Amino acid sequence: YLASASSSTESASAAGEVWKGAAWMLSYTLGYSTPLLFIGATGGQALVNLQKQTRDGSFSSIGQWITPLTGGVLIVFGMNGFLVALLGDPSLAGLAPIID
Question: In whole angstroms, what is the distance from residue 69 CA to residue 24 CA?
Fold first, then answer.
């Protein structure tokens, strides 16, 4: 009887850990994705407003660089991800002489 009680306590504890882990994952997901969704939902309108102000003369030097800069950032992050996947983590390559 004690072994079965211990087993049921362990399964209850494991179930509690699953819910705790699920709660942590939900909070992480909401904390990570909510700002991205907000920027995605409002960023297009902000760009349109900035382009309207560009026609009026204010922010004219900034407005023309938004699309090339954001495109450049996307290309840099994409190339970084591709090169890390292809060649491995560069921080580990720097440690190769020390490890040998």
Answer: 35
**CA distances, 72 to each of 5, 46, 57, 77, 80 (Å):** 61, 19, 25, 9, 12
pTM (2 decimals)? 0.40
Decide: 54 and 63 in contact? Cβ < 8 Å: yes
Q: What is the pLDDT of residues 1-50, one digit of tens each?
A: 444 444 444 555 566 688 888 888 889 888 888 888 888 888 778 777 77
Percent of the chain whose pLDDT exceeds 70: 64
CA gyration radius, the chain: 25
Write down the H helix ranges in the chain.
Answer: 2-56, 60-63, 66-87, 90-94, 96-99
Calpha distance 13→9 (Å, rounded): 6
